[in-house]
Amino acid sequence: MAKEKLIPYIDVIACAGCSVCIENCPKDCLELSKPKFKGDIRTIAQQNDKDACIGCGICAKVCPIGAISMQRPGTVPEHIARPKEGNKMGKIYCRVFQAVMKVGNYFMGYRTPELVSEGPGSIKRLPEIILAKGVGNVLLVTDEGLVKIGVPSGLMEAMDAAGLKYTVFSEVQPNPTDLNVEAGLKAYKENGCEGIIAFGGGSPMDCAKGIAARIAHPNKTIPQLQGILKVHKKIVPFWAVPTTSGTGSETTVAAVITEAATHHKASINDPAILPKYAVLDPELTMGLPPFVTATTGMDALCHAVEAYTNHTYNTKVEDDMAKDAVKLIHDWLLKAYENGSDLEAREKMQYAAFYAGRAFTRGCVGYVHAVGHTLGGLYGVAHGLAMSVILPHVMRQFGSAVYDKLADLADVCGMEGETNEDKALAFIAWIDEMKQSMGLPAGFDCIKDEDIDQIIEWADKEANPLYPVPVVWGKDDFKRLIHTLRNAVY
Predict the structure, then answer these.
(1) For the chain, the helix, strand and coil percentages under 3-state DSSP, each to the nearest 5
(2) Average pLDDT of the residues of the chain
(3) Strand partners, 168
(4) DSSP letter string over 257-278?
(5) Does residue 318 sit in the same domain as residue 398?
(6) Quick one: average pLDDT of 240-265?
(7) What's the pLDDT score for residue 86?
(8) pLDDT tens per residue across span 323-338
(9) Residue 23 — left, alpha, or beta (φ > 0 → left; ψ -120 to 50 → alpha)?
(10) What domain count does the chain have?
(11) Cβ–Cβ < 8 Å for 409, 308
(12) Which of 2, 87, 135, 224 is 20 to 30 Å from 232 by CA-CA measure?
């Protein structure tokens, strides 16, 4: 009797859409599904030609999270449990997914970018470093605001003196869009560039990463690259130069891009876009206005706090970096806010952002970011401002699940309390005090009734099951947070 042919069964809930199976299929009989709606980033693997499948099982063997198994036609694997919306199985599924990801993270190749130059004035040494790598023509990705006030001028003068060719691309919005990325890609190709310098805050950094991802995948759109592990190709030489102290984008595997047509804000998440080199020059942050100093600093705090309270994916490296970042922010953010010319405070905040960024690169963020991204996409709320406002409300809503972790952070900052709950609440109160002292709002009045369901859908899709949050939320939990944000006062 001939051996019965087995075919791949793809668990559509577990599939991360990473494309590893597609890249390895010898018969090209797998493809990514099309988006279900405008702005949908969760595409998954599916068969496009069942007759072409030879049942080799390669797709099942290479799937990094075990979402594919070989089965007889018409059968379903016994081990697959499909969670129902809003019940306990959904939460169990999230934890199982995260347990698998925790193991998978050990094979992801996380690293800390090499600080090729650091300290006051270090930006001027970058052109010689780039030329030594054999790169003679770069795309300098920045934004119009920085160009107008002359922040990149020192770097540009140094590139001219060193003979390094460059093209300035500054068409980057505060929440960079896929259209910005496409314009940058065009500039890169038309000018024969060989590498990228990302110069600025999170917006130019993310746009530059998007451009690098598109260079690696010339036939894919940004929405097709958004999600988990959809780049997995080496990018062009890339140097990151932060001019704010918040996003930590110089250390991260993420690039947050908004789809211009739908205003849907989502991330490309892949170690392939993690910058290999970074420059930390505190002089570049000296001109930041107080509001930007405040919101970017609070963004860094959010990265550190969410990464530390998530904990599941962390190693000691991430835990220690998160605590170091929180300590630096506690000691130096207000000083940088109150005196923008304090070079020591500026330098300390750059390291805080760097450590916090490295912590959440593996540890992940959580619901603060998931909800905040929707407000940026729908209403244009600046990322740092969204993080500043939402952070204490989410931590407070998590309740006892985060008391021990927040107590650790309170200890690092020298806060007192008789119990871990006391310390945790003191830490949250300190966040509120910091916000208020820097003139940041307690909540948002921009959230419209008709957008609430969309906010919840997008936030849930971004966060669950990937983010290892202390408490897995359902729709009612998100509604409670939104109600809090709309009615918050100091």
Answers:
(1) 50, 10, 35
(2) 91
(3) 140
(4) EEETTTTEEEEEE-GGGS-SEE
(5) yes
(6) 91
(7) 46
(8) 999 999 999 999 999 9
(9) alpha
(10) 3
(11) yes
(12) 135
Instruction: Tell me whether residue 347 is in a domain.
Output: no
pLDDT value of residue 1: 45
Note whether residue 482 is domain-resident: yes
CB 283 within 8 A of CB 237: no
Domain containing 443 equals: 83-110+290-342+359-490
pLDDT digits (tens, 9 = 90+) for 298-356: 999 999 999 999 989 999 999 999 999 999 999 999 999 999 999 999 999 999 999 99
Q: With contact defined as beta carbons under 8 Å apart, do 298 and 440 qualify?
A: yes
pLDDT digits (tens, 9 = 90+) for 61-107: 888 777 888 887 766 565 443 444 445 668 899 999 999 999 988 88
Task: Give the pLDDT confidence score for residue 81 in this predicted structure.
Answer: 37
Radius of gyration of the chain (CA): 23
Strand duo 137-141 + 195-200: pairing: parallel
Q: Would you give the DSSP letter of residue 217? A: -
Q: Which of 276, 239, 248 is nearest to 125 (CA)?
A: 239
Residue 345 in tokens: 């405070």
Question: Going edge to edge, which strands form the sheet with 264-269?
Answer: 227-228, 264-269, 254-259
pLDDT number for residue 88: 66
Whether residue 39 contacts residue 264, with contact meaning beta carbons closer than 8 Å, is answered with yes
Which residues does residue 242 pair with via DSSP β-bridges, in sequence order? 200
Nearest to 454 by CA among 232, 263, 300: 263
Name residue, tokens 């936030």: 459
CA 471-415-407 angle, 5° bins: 25
Looking at residue 315, its amino acid is: T
Q: 196 in a domain, yes or no?
A: yes
- The CATH number for 67's domain is 3.30.70.20
DSSP reduced 3-state for 328? helix
Q: Give the Cα separation of 139 and 168 in Å (integer).
A: 6
- Residue 351 within any structural domain of the chain: no
The residue assigned the tokens 């930590």 is: 248
Contact (Cβ atoms closer than 8 angstroms) between residue 356 and residue 304 = yes
Q: Return the structure tokens found at 138.
A: 């770069």
